[in-house]
ABC transporter
Amino acid sequence: MSLVEGRSVDPLLTVSGLRKVYEGAGRRVEAVRDLSFTVGAGEFVCLVGPSGCGKTTLLKCVGGLLRPTAGEVRLGGGPVTAPPPGMAVVFQEYGRSLFPWMRVGRNVELPLRQKGLGGERRRELVADALGSVGLADAADAYPWQLSGGMQQRVAIARALAYEPDVLLMDEPFAAVDAQTRADLEDLVRGLWRERGVTVLFVTHDIDEAVYLGQRVIVLSSSPTVVQEELAVDLPVERDQLHTRVAPRFAELRTRVYEQVQAAKRGAAPVEDAGARTYPPR
Ligand code: ADP
Ligand code: MG
């Protein structure tokens, strides 16, 4: 992958002029006003913004699950109008995304059947994905027999087994305890590095965004626009113990925090000559 300013030069995913207005039952909510950004092949981009700012709406539009009111999403050059074959989504509400009457292995296998893969290949991918999330022994359990963190790992395994080119994650760790969350963050970063998958990760947690991403896009309050894009110039090797206490980590989280605060007030981006932003100004 060739990198310029820490990001791939050829955009895989392009969101341009995206607008989403919900209408119905006499109500009209402009959730997303005007969003434009790109994600390069193999990039790890975090979107951070306050609750209710339209993050889930945006991700659903990117995943082809929701039709934008205006603007478009393009993947690999073509417009996204339905869920693209090479994309997998991990939602926040994993409890509802797993089928309780199916064993874990079957849950992970289901999208592979829909993909039309043969039995042997499916078994291989399921075992491999469950192994990568540390649940090799849980294939025969039912989701409700597992803890919340384990269920979320099943949801991640299901997305991985699918071998996506693009992984969309919508606040996937919001409902798990702090220790599990830290483990899952490292798991996702490890998988990103090993598999070269492109990740678009949505969170309201500033530290998580800085810890995980190569780039952080700060969203404003609803109706949403891009408040700022920030390159995360931390080393590729990151770990919970050292990265989070590094001076540069503190600078970056402060910068993102200021932008999120400004976004909440509806103010213009906070200027800071010392911060390295993308694109360079
Ligand atoms: P976030 O994920 O950032 O918390 P959402 O995308 O869920 O934000 O919601 C953004 C805004 O759109 C909110 O004001 C929310 O109430 C509204 N909204 C979301 N889904 C719908 C829907 N199906 N119908 C009407 N309004 C919606
Ligand atoms: Mg949401």
